[in-house]
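Here is one chain, start to finish.
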Amino acid sequence: MEEYKQTIEEVRKVMEADPDTGLSSQEVDERRKKQGLNKFDEAPKESMIKKFFRSLSDFTTIVLLIAAVISFYTAFATEHGDLFEGLLIIAIVVINSVLAIVQEGNAEKALESLQDMNKQTATVIRDGKVTTVESEQLVVGDILVLESG
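Its structure:
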């Protein structure tokens, strides 16, 4: 049977939740251990090395690296060139990559701060009392209190 067609009594029996007292704290803890927090899994964070190599895959960075290789080739092949130009180009690429990584890190920190500021809450019945919890702490079977207005 499709869940959305079930009656309130059928759902209450399946969820083993009393609409008057809600879940007990012990039951909430057990369900949280089994099911985890009520949130999406976060993508694993990239290592600094991966971020560095990803920053090197930018089109302009590739063009600069090719220019550095050409500069080094002409410096060694013709014996008239100077290694300074090639080293300067490599230094620019490295500085650009470091700045990109720092900027990305700052943006990630700002996003985390915004997410912390925007925590959602829900009103539930637990242990026979109406209480407010963070949405991450909700478990299957919680009795939500919907407010009108």
